[in-house]
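User: I'm writing a tutorial on reading structure tokens. Could you give me a worked example: one chain, its sequence, then its tokens, then a sentence or two explaining what the tokens reveal?
Assistant: Sure. Here is the example chain.
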Amino acid sequence: MKTAVSQLLLQVLGELAESELKQFRAKLRDVALWKAFNEHLRKLLPEADLVQWLSSHFGMEYGAELTVWAHRAMNQEARAQSLLDTLDAYGKVCSEHLEIISSVRSVLHSTLARLGKEELGSFKAKVADVELRDTSFTNPPIPAGRLEKVALEEMVEELISHYGVRYAIEATLSVLRDMNQKALGTALFQQQRNYIKQTWEWTAALFRVSECLIHTWGSLGEAELENFRSKVMELDQEQGSSPMPREKMETAVPQTVMEELIHEYGEERALRMTQDILRGMKKVALAKTLMEASKTDPWREKQCELCPRETDSPEELNPKIIQAPKGSQERYSVHIPRAGCFRCPKTKLRFRVRAPVTIQYESISWDQHLPEEVAQQFMVAGPLFDIQVDLAEAVEAVYLPHFLCLAGGEITVAQMQVAHFGASGMRLEKPARVRSFHAVLENPSFSLLGVLWQMIRSKRQICIHSLVLLYRTLQAADITLHLYLIPDDCSVIQAVENYEKRWQSFHVPKPPLTKPLHYGVSYCAVSSAPSVEISPQALEFQRRGPEKHQLHFEVYSRRMEKQVELSVRDREQTNPVWDSILRPGDVNPPASPAEEPSANVLGASMAKTMKDHLVDTLKDLCEGELKEFKGKLTDIKLKEGHTSIPRGELEKAVPVEIADLLVKRYGEVNGVKVTIHVLEAMSQRNLSDRLHKATGASQG
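And here are its predicted structure tokens:
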């Protein structure tokens, strides 16, 4: 069964032309760390310098990982652990190094975006003549004319690719000074200082890994080296797998490339590698599409770039809403018909059951139940649930969601407790296990249940899994958006939704995941368009109970004629904690089927047909999105007796022609249903909802 990551990688690789796919495969070979260990080991041990060979053939990091693996196979745990500790420290510095490179890329983009059209043209011309102050950099300037017609994002990538990160900044600052735009380079100058400082830290960490490798291997005698060689051979035979041969990789189709990537590196690393390779190929837009799409996970458990994913795959429940008074939290009921592990997508609650059972549950406010003296010692770490079951013995375990970032530091699992509220008051219970996003109670007794964290340090130092929610309200002037920055708490999410419904707002679907945030820190929302007004200037991040008003930014624009970049940043930092692109079609209100059509000059009402609504919807897709729509349309699974529209007919079709093809092959009603299905597969929920409301059709 395909995972969300494999489908995403396959979709992105399918966007590449044959020549581009060939280039991708070549670059993948360049960075691949194939496990051709035995053959080289036989040739090089013990004559060769093992540390030098490991570093040159596998790279320092992977060579060190292999050394840890080999020493554990030889029961040399102390040596392995010492090297692993050094490697972990290096890994953290590497992550910081990648972060600052990403930050430099972002600041370069935002700095140059502030130049006018003529100024940007002047910048491109002057870059070809720039002379750097540092004489140790001997590369010639970027050839004149290479940047003339490239977009801003491609120009930033060209600067970094040609000069490297440090000298790309210096070249940009030099040209800005020459253009009397020195003030624009203030943030960039600070980024240069940060990058140089962090590069020294990265180099020092890499040296420590090399030093530890030399010490580790130098302490082995000849007999131990021979033992290592034999262990490697044994382990390789046990694994029973071999890397893809070079000649096979040269002709591999996207499906095969995707499978090999995930097999060799795992899902997370495969995503990062693919993004890096695409950037190196100047496929910046495709790399950005992959980055944005990978932030949105249908399971909602992949909610942190630091925490490991919970890898099990519970069956998804479809609970009924049995109580939903206006403005309050919804109450759910579900009958689980058999033993197994199940998950509620609305609340992220999970249940592992031994036998059939009926469960009712809802999230409620902590403030009504948590005693004041307890609130001074413990911090709310997740929603509070009222859970009732008809047969408690049938439930083997309940997984209560929490929003603490365990990988972000300053959090000890031992400080986590589950609060029970009953007739006799509150009691605390240690969870059987704590996972990245859940605290697990085994053989639970049911009452009001929720996760607390015992405060030893300040709340400000704790990392919180958080979300951005974006709504457009129709009861305010022009285009007014509400941007919420909240902990990943289903009760708060529901409270925001209820509030916005009263304002006749609609959700603007954007990837909600932020980097882990800190309570008490002030964050500001930033736009790339000067015409966009945002207030207040900053908000302090905090958790407010669902019964309280949730604070938000108001984002206002008189009109939106082109796309706008939105980001949220820590006031003290330049790196965004969340960013996204807002397109004009994203904020268009959904059409209402109840609206009366306007009279025309002939005196008759001209109501739109389903095909008209199809055309309107497809016109709201930008060029890249329309291409994605065509690709998914040809791959869609249909009921027996129906066939997909041939790829050749869709390749150059414009929206009107696509609508014609849909209606001709499926009829109007089914054509709309197919379109809704494809839009939802593309995470274009706003467009699919609008088309559904306008036509009364659904996926069914």
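What the tokens reveal: The domain at 316-461 is CATH 2.60.220 (Chondroitinase Ac; Chain A, domain 3). The chain has five domains: 4-90+218-295, 96-200, 316-461, 465-587, 610-695.
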